[in-house]
C-alpha cells in the first residue's frame, strides 16, 4: 500500500475494496485505518461523513479480532484493567476526588465530572477550575469515584468497552440523582453529549455543559471579577469541542472579556482548525508523529505573534506543550481556565 492509504481518501479507497471483497481485513489494513486522530477535518474538506466511516472500520476491525497496532490496543486494555487509559492506579484517582470538599456534598446544581487526563496528567487544571467555580459561587459537587468516560476506547473502535464505561457512568449519575453534568475535557463532552446516545441507543438522561459555556454565562452575569492581562492570545479549537460539537464562540468570548487581552486567530481556525495530533488514540499509537503534528500547530500559533496559545481541552493542552518543547518554542500554552484562574479576584 502507498502513503496515500494513510489519508482519508486512501481509507475510503480501502473501504471501497473491502466492501467489494477485493481486500481482506488484516493488520496492514488496521495499521492504515487506525492512523487517524478522529479530528473530522476530512468531513469539512470533502462534505461527506468520512470520519464516521473510518470509526466504523475501526469498530469492525476490533469486532473481527484484527489487532490494531500495540499503542492503540493498550488504550482498551488499560481502560478495562485499570479503569483509565493511562494504566494508572484507579485508587489514586478516587483519592484525588475524595480529597475535594465538594465530593462530600449530597446535592448541588451541577455534578462536576473530572476526566482521566485532568486527574492523572494535568492535575493543576483541577485547581484552576475549582478556584473559578468557587469564586463565582457555583453550586456543584464531585463524584467520589473516578470512572473513565470511555472516549479513548471508543475512538480506537472498542465499542464494547466504551459501552461498559457508559453503563458505569450512567449508573453513577443516576445514583447521585444528577441530571446536569459539567465537564472541562472536550473528549468527555463529546462522549456524554453525542456518543452515549449511540452506545446506549437512547436519548441521554442528563444534560452536559462544558465549563467554557458556564464561564461564558458567569461573565455575562457579572459573577466574576477579573483583573486585566496585557497579552495577545490565540485560541486552538479542540476537535471534539469545535468541529464535532460546534462550540466556537464561547471560548473566544471568555478570552475577549478579559481586560487588556487582544485575541488573534491562527490561519486555520474554527471548523477548519488543525488538530493537535493527540486524538483517536494517535498519541498512544504514533507518539512521534502526534508530537510533530502538535509542533506544526504551535508554529502556526507563533506566526500570529501571540504570547499565549490557549485551548479548552486538557489532552490538547498536554500534546501542544510536548509539541512546543520538541521545537524549543517559548510560547506559553495554557487552558482558558488556568488563564482566568490567575486573574479572578
Describe how the helices and strands are arranged.
Elements lengths: L7 H12 L7 H8 L6 H6 L3 H14 L6 H13 L7 H9 L11 E4 L2 H5 L3 H12 L4 E2 L9 H5 L3 H17 L4 E4 L2 H15 L6 E4 H10 L10 E6 L12 H8 L4 E4 L17 H4 L1 H16 L5 E4 L2 H13 L5 E4 H6 L4
Parallel strand pairs: 1-2, 1-3, 3-4, 5-6, 5-7, 7-8
Helix pairs in contact: 1-4, 12-13, 15-16
Please characterize this protein's 3D structure:
The protein has helices spanning 8-19, 27-34, 41-46, 50-63, 70-82, 90-98, 116-120, 124-135, 151-155, 159-175, 186-200, 211-220, 249-256, 282-285, 287-302, 314-326, 336-341; strands at 110-113, 140-141, 180-183, 207-210, 231-236, 261-264, 308-311, 332-335. By secondary structure, it is an alpha/beta fold. It has three domains: 3-67, no CATH class; 72-215, Rossmann fold (3-Layer(aba) Sandwich), CATH 3.40.50; 222-341, Rossmann fold (3-Layer(aba) Sandwich). The strands form two sheets. Strands 2-1-3-4 form a four-stranded parallel beta sheet. The protein has a four-stranded parallel beta sheet with strand order 6-5-7-8, sandwiched between helices. α1 (8-19) packs across α4 and α12 (211-220) crosses α13.
Question: CATH class of the largest domain, anyone?
Answer: Alpha Beta
- Structurally, how many domains make up the residues? 3
Strand content: 5-15%
Helicity, in percent? 40-55%
Decide which structural class fits the backbone: alpha/beta
- Tally of DSSP helical segments: 17
Q: Strand order within the widest sheet?
A: 2-1-3-4
Specify the biggest β-sheet.
4 strands, parallel
Distance between the termini: 58 Å
